[in-house]
Every structure is written in C-alpha cells, then in structure tokens.
Write a structure and sequence with these properties.
The complex is a heterodimer of chains A (297) and B (412). Chain A is α/β, with parallel strands linked by helices and 297 residues long. Chain A has a single domain (3-283), classed as 3-Layer(aba) Sandwich (Rossmann fold), CATH 3.40.50.300. Chain A has helices spanning 47-54, 77-87, 103-114, 118-131, 147-159, 177-192, 234-237, 248-252, 255-261; strands at 3-14, 21-32, 36-40, 62-67, 70-71, 88-91, 165-169, 196-200, 212-217, 220-226. In chain A, the strands form 2 sheets. Chain A has a 6-stranded mixed beta sheet, sandwiched between helices. A 4-stranded antiparallel beta sheet of chain A has the order 2-1-4-5, with helices on one face. The two termini of chain A are 20 Å apart. With 412 residues, chain B is of the alpha+beta class. Chain B has 2 domains: 2-53 and 281-410, no CATH class; 59-271, no CATH class. Chain B is built from 12 helices and 13 strands. In chain B, the strands form 2 sheets. In chain B, strands 1, 4, 5, 6, 7, 8, 9, 10, 11, 12 and 13 form an 11-stranded mixed beta sheet that branches. In chain B, strands 2-3 form a two-stranded antiparallel ribbon. In chain B, a hairpin with a 5-residue loop joins strand 2 (71-73) and strand 3. In chain B, helix 2 (20-56) crosses helix 10 (330-366) and helix 8 packs across helix 10. Chain B is elongated and about 100 Å long. The chains are: A alpha/beta (297), B alpha+beta (412). At the A-B interface, helix 2 and helix 3 of A face helix 1, helix 9, helix 10 and helix 12 of B.
Amino acid sequence: MATVIDLKEVSRIYGFGNATTVALEDISLGIEKGEFVAIMGPSGSGKSSLLHIIGLLDRPTHGTYTLGSRLVSKLRPNRLAKARRDHIGFVFQSFNLLPRLTAIENVALPLAYKGMTQTKRLKQASSALERVGLSDREYFYPKALSGGQAQRVAIARALVNSPSLIIADEPTGNLDSLSSRIVMEILAELHATGSTILMVTHNPELTRYATRVLYMHDGCIIYDEKTKLGEVPARARSGGEERPSSDEDEQLAGVSAFINAIPAKAAPPRKVLQPKTKKRKRAVRKTAKSPKRKLRT
Amino acid sequence: MTLLLNSNARMALQSIRSNKLRSLLTMVGIIIGVSSVILTISLGEGIRRQVADTNQTSNDSLVTVRSGQIVKRSADGVITDVNYLASLGVNTLTYQDYEAIGKLPNAGTVVPLSTVSGLATNFEGESYPEATVVATTAKLPEIINQKVVYGGFFQDSTSSRRVAIIGKRVAEELFNENVPLGKLLTIRGHDFVVGGIFDEFKTNPLSAVTDFNKAIFISYTTAQSITSANPPIFQLLITPKDDVSAEQIAEATTALLLKNHGNQQDFTVLKGNETAIVARNTVAIATSFVAGIAAISLLVGGIGIMNIMFVNVTERTREIGVRKSLGATNRQIYHQFLIEAAVISTVGGIVGIIVALAGNALLRITTDLQPAVTWQIVALAVGVSAIVGIIFGTIPAVKAARKDPIESLRYE
C-alpha cells in the first residue's frame, strides 16, 4: 500500500514569546491509502490542529508533510487551495453547508472552483448526491433538510471531486444515533470502495468502522493501534485515557505511579491550557486501575 | 475564468436577493448619485440645444452691446473666457451711448432695450408681478425678426403716445384672453392701450435678463416722460448699413464706447453667433458645477457600498472559511466579493438611469425645460457606477480573501 500522508516530526506552535502554546509536538505519522483512521482524545489534545495540518488549512511550524508525492508544508497558499480542491474532502461537525445554495449547488461548489461547466458540475453533483441516497433532495435548501440529511449532503460535497482523502471532524457530533449510523454507513461504504478517511470522534462505538485508531493527548499521539473492522478496541471504550490524570484522587495514588504512567514521548505539561470546556466528559472515564501500556512507536 | 465570473455574478445576485432591504438601501446611494449626474448633464445638454435653436432665428449681422464685461477675448478677437455673472446688477449703458452709436456713420438701425421699474395692472386693478416693462423704439420687431401677430407695433409718429405692445404670456395672465387689443393697463399710474401682441418668442432658460413673452413694450420716449429720467439701458441692438459688415460696426462701437466710458471695458460687444457662444459657455459652467455636486453624491454612494461590503464580509466569515476549505483560492474569494459590489453598483446605476429618465419626463411636462439624454451620458453613468463599485469593493474583497480559513471556520 502506498503511503498517502507522511508527517515527519511535525510541530505546531501558536503565539509568540511567553504566550506560546504547543498544539502538536513532533508528530510522525504515516497513513496508507485505503485506511480508515479514527482519532480520539480529549479536547485540546491537538486533534483539530492535526486535522487542519493534514487538511492543508494550516502549516506545520516545524517538520515536513508529504501528501501523495508532493511536499506540501512549503507550498504557497494558492497551491494549497488547489491541493485542497483536488485531493481533500472536508466533512464538518456543523455540516457547514452554504444556506443560500440548494443541496446540489452546495455539492457542486468544489467543481465550480475547478472551472467546470455548469451542466457538468450539476451532473457530477447529482451522482454524488445519489451515492449518499439523497437524489430526491437535490433542490432543497439546507434549512429544509434534517441534520442527518444535511451531513449526507456535506459528505456528497466532500466526495464529489473524488479526493484521495476525506477528513471528517466529528461528523456525527450533532446527530442523533440513527442519523449517526446512516452517516457512518456511508463513510464505511466510501472506505470499502477505497477512499482514505481520517475521522475525529468522541464516540468510541464509532471506532468499529475504523481500521486504525489514534489516541492523542497534549499534542502527542500516545497510542496508535490497528483494529479489525467491526471491533471496538478496549482502549477506545475508555477514550484512550489510560493514564492517571491530574485529578485529586489520582494525586493520592502517588507521584511515582504518576511518573511511571507518563509515556516516554509524552509532552511536558503545557504552560497555557486552552480554555475549552470538556464537552464530552462521559467519554473520559477514569482508568487508573487498568494496566498501563507503553506507547507503541 | 469566465465560468467563474458567470457563477460569481449569479451568486452575487443571490446574495443581493437574500438581503433585499439592505441591498436596496445600499443601492439608493448609487441611484441618487447616478440619477442626479444624468439629470444635471441632460438638463445642461437640453438647455444648450434650446439656446442653439433660438439662436438660429436671430440675425447674423446683428451686433449686441451688453452692460458689464462678460467675455474676455484673445488678441485676435476670439472669446476665451465667459463670466456671465459680470453682467448682473450693472447698468453701464446710457441714453447718451445710444444716441452716440446712432450717429456712427456705419450704423443702420440702433434699438435700445431698457427696463422700467414698476408693476403693470389691468383695468380691474389686478397685476401680473412677473411682467417686465421694457422701453424700446419702433424698430425692435424688425431688428429681432419677430412678428406682431395682432395689431401692430408702435410707430415713431406715435411713440409719445400711450401704446403698449405685450408678449403672449402677458395677454394670457393679465387679461385672461388671447387678443386683448384695445384693453387698458396701468404702469406707474399712467394708462396704456394694448396696441399689439407679439407672436410667441422662442425662449431658452438663459434668454438674456428677461423673457420677452412676459414683457410689456412701451416706447422709450414715453418711458422718459413717465419716469422723468433716461431709464438705464441693459442692451443695445445694432445692425450695420447695407455695405458694412458686422465686424466693422462692432469695432466702431467698441472704440466709441471705450472713449465715452473713460477707457473702461465695462460693456461687451457681441456680434452674430457670439451671443450663442456666451450662452453655451454659461450653460457649460453651470452644468459642470452642478454635475460636480452630483458626483459627490455618487462618491457618498460608493462609500455606502464599501461600508455594506465590510458588514457582508464579516457576516459571511464562516462561508469564506467553508469556501476556502473546499478549495477556493484567495483570488477566487476576492473576485466573489468584488463582483458582488460591482453588481450592486451597476444595478443601482441602471435604476438610477430609469429614475433620471422619469425625472426628465416630469421636467418636460411641468416646465419649459427640455432635458436631452444622449447615449453617451447613459453609457458614462453605467460605466462610472460599475467603476465606483469596483473601486469601493476592492478593500472589503481583499479583507475577505485574506481571512484565515481555520479562524473563519470557527467564526460564529
């Protein structure tokens, strides 16, 4: 299998001087064609920063990023935009459909930036909508669609350009369980037909669709395991949080246990914590008693 | 590129439609600007044509002398500069000037025009305040080529008698009839009999000093007797003798008046078509002055577009982020917003033209003015409004294009 994404010691640092925040620290990651990678981790662990860099919306501060065969970390903004257009499809948690355009116009948007003729665009957009089972909603405006339908339109938009990589940032985060399932089945189908998919999720159940699960913490990938389709790895159920956190009862467990628990390549404690609220506490279960494993390289 | 232009224009229209009230208010600025520019220019053009029209009927060999120095001439006698305001409120020509010019060997007919202050009232004591009393001599109809359609003009033999010849409007307004021959009117306590009614004078809004359709003509000698003075002359009309050219008599008149006025050039001698040049120049100055003010309102409209485009860009930050994530380049985002601004201002320009045409029609119906719209004016207005949109849309479009995609996607 060919490596589609190749990150080498990629770091992303925000801010200057005393106020710097390390969002990603020395991440090296290779993703092969056809993989379905789920990324898990608490808020502020760097999942989004990683997605932004892989999705060419951001550039690494240090390190190199190769997408396909081209080194993209040094590309000019214009070339980055074109690479996004031709190689990457985005699916967002909040759908991000343009409210003033109909479903089919939304789907055809990436093709418009390519300079395709209107008829060709609509034809291609129509077949993309058919793939997500929404042929009868082509001329609906986003506000007339249910959440699940809107997300399926967004997926159609992401795949209309036949990108080599689909990046989904919590695609089911705003959906009920039935809609989530439909959306995930569509992603699974795309995966089955050979697409490479990168998905951030907080729902451990969804890792059953993935072939590989990454767990992130403090800007580092702390675990990286291959899974079989249809299986939910035990670690995923625990949200990847297998190390003691800095909660009070954990501190009682003793400093030595704490030190042992820190993986070899873990990041130093951040100076500046991102002031994000932890939206999904239920996924973060305390697992101090479970056996500690070392990070696999 | 053209494909993108096309779809951008469609998106711009969509965005304008989805924000109808706001877009309309933005356009109002442009509409006012464009329509006032067109109105003033077409008004100027219309007046210019009317002036040219009235002038065709006037006598080419006619020499006109007016009070005040309203033109500057180059050494070879060509008019280089016109200042119409210099003639207002000055009466430098006198009865002595009239008599002196009449004695010039080359002068054929000399006719003075002077105003007599005072209100004219009819036999019932009603007055027509817009009427002007003009004192002149018997040769006036002949020298200005104007027919007296009813009755006749006073003759020299009757010039001391109380006969008045009136313009068409005076007949209608003061006597409420078309042919009030033989009716009485009173000027400064003296009774006059209406002896004739002039055919309608072709007028233009710049007809010197007074509209002859609203004038009451009495003989100069009568005016001298009822005012016990020599009424000041605002204009002298001179024709040369048969074998003499207008240039010669104009030169002779200038030399004579300079001598009589102590070498002061406080008068203007115009020959033949030069009166039209003066009028045209005056129209041009007035038009460009008002059009300049109108252009400022167009500028204000442009700033309105810029303001609303900034609001638009901020409001649609998330959309910009989404578009960028879908592969839109900075240039494509820039074009999207630029085209939107240009569409707003061009549509505003087109509506402005329609408003201006409606205004012109209204002016034609309600006044004597006949504004003329040429296709050049219309093309200019559309072009200018599109350019205004592009100029004032550039900065917001640049702002939109430079937005960071990640921050834009997070924007609520």
